[in-house]
């Protein structure tokens, strides 16, 4: 309990495959490696990736690292659930076969497109560093409300490295027709092919509401489902795509490696956002134009009635007065149109990320100097007095 008295703001919120995660601030968590040899090796691999990240401008689609040392990694606190949990909470399953029978709710199409692009941009960022994530699956994609970011880089390695992670349907073993990609029956080598395939399956999950073959009973024995799914994917047998044609085309191209690079995919997914933006701008323009016409017409009619009233009542101000009154309406139209043309929101300044880092980094360094990482590494959470508190700041 001494650690909690000394650091009352620290809470144990998660236990991952290779590390324990503690909240140290409402916006910051720290990952502490577990004591096993394998866990320590994987943690060291992740440290190497964060070292590479630290030498490059931050990517807004990747969970940000504020500070790291051999004993811990301080990260941006994504305060909601993983993509996996977000999707699964909308499932109704057959309790015997566990296949998904109903998807209670789909995310809005605009948000799904945004998520597709965010994932592509994150993977393309890694590709630009000659890296492949190696474990692209929904459990490694975190949410903060509707913001989506890629996390967990302990399987990330240089392109061309042997592909060891990620099970079906986000990874697939090679068949006999793919000898150029590696030995049949293996996952092959990390590169655009492996990342694109995983992204295609993630896009399927996001848009169809369940995993590839998640709505089908592939075998009578539920325990044989996994091997059967692996076999189907190895043979490139995919479920029918009958959703949004533009999205289906992207999924199909990812599965069949029709993009040369992940960057090419990222350029394509960005057009999905441009289409939405263009449509919104067109609708807004039509709306604004309609409002301008309506307002100017109203102003014109009011002034016209006022002028006619004065003429009828014998209060003739002459033609000069009539023209002045009419001109006011036209000048109002010009002024309103000018204001309408300036009514646009600004995009978020990406430099904001960098500006925030210095204060967050200092906060984390101070915690290390005070001995927090040493104390958290001294034992498992329960042994050093912590109780599991889930995500205390989880957003509802």
Coarse morphology: globular
Mean pLDDT: 84
Cα-atom radius of gyration: 29 Å
Q: What does the largest sheet look like?
A: 5 strands, antiparallel
Give the class from helix and strand content and strand pairing: alpha+beta
Quick one: CATH superfamily of the largest domain? Answer: Transferase(Phosphotransferase) domain 1
State the CATH class of the largest domain. Answer: Mainly Alpha
What does this structure look like?
It is a single chain. With 396 residues, the chain is α+β, with helices and mostly antiparallel strands. The chain folds into three domains: 1-77 and 356-396, 2-Layer Sandwich (Phosphorylase Kinase, domain 1), CATH 3.30.200; 80-288, Transferase(Phosphotransferase), domain 1; 289-341. The protein has eleven helices and eleven strands. It has helices at residues 2-6, 37-54, 83-88, 109-128, 192-208, 225-234, 245-255, 262-312, 318-341, 351-369, 372-376, and strands at residues 11-15, 19-25, 28-33, 65-69, 72-76, 91-93, 100-103, 131-132, 141-144, 147-150, 157-158. It has a five-stranded antiparallel beta sheet with strand order 1-2-3-5-4, sandwiched between helices. The protein has a two-stranded antiparallel sheet with strand order 6-7. The longest helix has 51 residues, at 262-312. The chain is globular and about 55 Å long. Residues 291-300 and 310-350 have low confidence and may be disordered.
Please give a quick description of this structure:
The protein is α+β, with helices and mostly antiparallel strands.
Q: How are the elements arranged and paired?
A:
Elements: H1 2-6, E1 11-15, E2 19-25, E3 28-33, H2 37-54, E4 65-69, E5 72-76, H3 83-88, E6 91-93, E7 100-103, H4 109-128, E8 131-132, E9 141-144, E10 147-150, E11 157-158, H5 192-208, H6 225-234, H7 245-255, H8 262-312, H9 318-341, H10 351-369, H11 372-376
Antiparallel strand pairs: 1-2, 2-3, 3-5, 4-5, 6-7, 8-11, 9-10
Helix pairs in contact: 4-5, 4-8, 5-7, 8-9
């Amino acid at each position: 309990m001494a650690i909690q008295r000394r650091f009352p703001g620290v809470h144990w919120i998660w236990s991952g495959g290779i590390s324990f995660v503690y909240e140290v601030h409402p916006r910051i968590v720290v990952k502490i490696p577990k004591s096993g040899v394998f866990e320590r090796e994987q943690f060291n691999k992740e440290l190497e990736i964060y070292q590479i990240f630290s030498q490059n401008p931050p990517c807004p689609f990747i969970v940000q690292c504020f500070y790291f040392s051999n004993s811990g990694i301080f990260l941006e606190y994504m305060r909601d659930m993983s993509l996996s949990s977000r999707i699964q909470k909308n499932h109704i399953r057959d309790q015997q076969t566990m296949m998904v029978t109903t998807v209670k709710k789909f995310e809005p199409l605009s948000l799904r497109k945004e998520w597709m692009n965010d994932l592509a941009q994150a993977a393309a960022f890694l590709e630009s560093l000659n890296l492949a994530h190696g474990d692209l699956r929904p459990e490694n994609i975190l949410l903060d409300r509707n913001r989506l970011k890629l996390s967990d880089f302990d399987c990330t390695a240089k392109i061309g490295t042997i592909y060891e992670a990620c099970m079906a349907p986000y990874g697939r073993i090679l068949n006999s027709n793919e000898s150029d990609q590696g030995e049949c029956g293996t996952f092959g080598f990390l590169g655009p092919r492996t990342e694109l395939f995983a992204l295609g399956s993630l896009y399927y999950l996001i848009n169809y509401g369940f995993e590839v073959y998640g709505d089908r009973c592939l075998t009578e024995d539920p325990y044989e489902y996994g091997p059967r799914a692996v076999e189907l994917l190895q043979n490139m047998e995919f479920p029918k795509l009958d959703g949004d044609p533009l999205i289906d085309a992207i999924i199909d191209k990812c599965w069949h490696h029709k993009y040369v690079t992940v960057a090419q995919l990222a350029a394509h997914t960005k057009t999905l956002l441009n289409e939405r933006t263009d449509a919104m701008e067109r609708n807004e323009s039509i709306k604004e134009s309609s409002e301008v016409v309506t307002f100017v017409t109203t102003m014109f009619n009011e002034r016209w009635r006022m002028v006619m009233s004065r003429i009828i009542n014998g209060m003739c101000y002459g033609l000069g007065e009539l023209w002045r009154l009419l001109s006011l309406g036209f000048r109002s139209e010009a002024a309103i149109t000018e204001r309408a043309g300036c009514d646009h929101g600004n995009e978020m300044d990406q430099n904001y990320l960098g500006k925030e880092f210095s204060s967050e980094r200092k906060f984390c360094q101070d915690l290390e100097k005070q001995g927090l990482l040493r104390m958290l590494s001294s034992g498992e959470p329960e042994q050093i007095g912590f109780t599991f508190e889930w995500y205390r700041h989880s957003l509802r």
